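Reading a protein record of the kind used here takes only a little practice. Think of the row as the fold of the chain written in a discrete alphabet. A record is reproduced here so that you can trace the correspondence yourselves:
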Amino acid sequence: MKMAIYYYFEAPLHRAIKIGLKLTLVEVMTAQEDNNNSAIYEIILSLCN
């Protein structure tokens, strides 16, 4: 059984790092991709739970 791992970054992530993580089956999303790049820090933290 595989366990899903997700990372949510509040800052833009270098493309090479993102690709490397995806190759190891880690899902990655940045606040910018989620249209929350100008959100309050507490809102971004709540998305990580």
About this structure: The chain is about 35% helix and 20% strand. The longest helix spans residues 15-23. Residues 5-47 form one domain. The beta strands are 5-9, 26-30.
